[in-house]
Design brief:
This protein has eight helices and 18 strands. The two termini are 21 Å apart. The chain is α+β, with helices and mostly antiparallel strands. The protein has two domains: 136 residues, Alpha Horseshoe (Serine Threonine Protein Phosphatase 5, Tetratricopeptide repeat), CATH 1.25.40; 286 residues, Porin, CATH 2.40.160.
Length: 433
Amino acid sequence: MKISTACLLFLLAAAPLAAGAADAVPAADHAARAAALLDGGRAREAYDLLQPLYAAGEGGEEAAFLLGQAAQALARPAEAAGVYEGMLKKNKALPRVRLELARAYAALGETGKAREQFLAVLAGSPPPLVGENINKYMASMAPRKSWSARAGLGYVWDSNINAGPEARTVLMFGAPFTLSNDSRETSGSGYTASLEGSWLRELKPGLALQADAGYSRARYEGAHGFDSDSFSASAGPTFGGRGFVLSAPLVFENLRVGHVRYNIAYGLAPQVMAPLGARLSAEGSLVLQHKKYYVGGGQRTGPVWSASAGVKYSLGSKSFARASLRHAAEGTSEDYLDNVSDGLSLGWYAGLPAGFSFYASPGFSLTRYGAAEAAYDERRRDAQYSGVLNLSKEFPAAGLSAAAGFTFTRNDSNLGLYDYVRRQLTLRFSMAF
């Protein structure tokens, strides 16, 4: 069960160890040393220092409390709970110990016992702000649904649905060729619809099973050859603890374009996130897939893999910045379709007043193909510049959200047939269930 550590830290800072803290006996040297070790993140050393004293019935109340904190830091909530329970048997007037005991119970999944300890602290009339945070803490322990779902409906305008070149003529086989209207830049508008669902089952603290599925549709007026239907699903274990999260889901995708089956993909997509500091965290992902194409004779069928790594920096409780690098490779049955790409993306998210939020993300990628196509003397090489802007508004009470987005793509290719500019504008409304 996930509990707000920020809330807990405030509670511990605001509440005294004992109701009569002013009359407490000064801490012994070993307790002071253990406190310094805990402050320095050296919980194992603090535990090894205090545990023999506690077992021998020495060290006093302060040392016992610090031992409980060390056990908690070492992910031993059952042992910590035993220490706190022993302290409360000797002295019931220890509100801070009750708060830590509630935390230990919550980590063990015993929310009923945790709530009893919180209510006992509230019965002692703590400072108003402490009481308010206790209520928030208890609210965070409320049973959560094992599933969630979201449905969306929107409008899309696309300046270049088919990613076609603006030029009327391109060089092929060393001569100019006039492109048909269907091959050139084609704009259009239409609607989008989506349905997403997620299921999570916690097996034990730090281990859960998660499954996700989603379906999305795009329909363009007067250009149904570019309509698309996409279905995706993933399922696998998730491991976590102390800010570290690792997931390893199996993934599946099925895409239809122009009402014709386009491709399917399946594979494994592990992801990891690890804290590097109070504000900084590292992120990484690996996608290993096999893609089967049903168009173009299936020439692009083959393995696809990509790896990304980046960092995320918290700018406050509602804002963050992100930077990541990505490398990808696609194998096919034709050398001229094989390609590798490298990219860089940046992102900035800001929570705004009144439930608004803003997101901006520029990016760059360079894709290089394995061999020249029959119509060209040189291999294809694309430099792509992109940018995303998104403004959204949440209506939490109704479970609704609205968003407006703009995407710009400039694909700068050395082959005129693949050189294009694309702009997309989206308006979307969604509801969570």
